[in-house]
Amino acid sequence: MTTTERRKAVAGRVREAEELVARLRGGFAGVGIVLPSLRLDPVSFAGDDPVVLLDLGRCNLDTALRLTQVLEGKAAGHGG
């Protein structure tokens, strides 16, 4: 794969990851959760062998509690 082909492939993955970040933000917001640090990890796709990673970031204890409640609700078969 040429450098140009690699760059195009990474650009496509970055666009896909940006869409996923937006979907995650929307999904979290729908259940009352805001992760202010949610973003792409720019370092992950900067090297010679890029892997696009999402950084879910940090959150306070109240947000972590809400997130666990939603996940536990989903695991128990409830809507969250």
Helix and strand topology:
Blueprint: H1 3-30, E1 39-41, E2 53-55, H2 61-75
Antiparallel strand pairs: 1-2
What helical percentage do the residues reach? 40-55%
**In what order do the strands lie side by side in the largest sheet?**
1-2
Number-wise, the strands total 2
- H/E element order: HEEH
How many helices does DSSP assign?
2
Low-confidence stretches: none
Distance between the termini: 45 Å
* Strand residue percentage: 5-15%
Largest sheet: 2 strands, antiparallel
Instruction: Indicate the overall shape.
Output: elongated
**Number of domains as seen in the coordinates:** 1
Radius of gyration over C-alpha positions, nearest whole angstrom: 16 Å
Classification by helices and strands: mainly alpha
Q: What this model shows, in words?
A:
The model has no long low-confidence stretch (mean pLDDT 87). This protein has one domain. A two-stranded antiparallel ribbon has the order 1-2. It is mainly α and 80 residues long. The protein has helices at residues 3-30, 61-75, and strands at residues 39-41, 53-55. It is elongated and about 50 Å long.
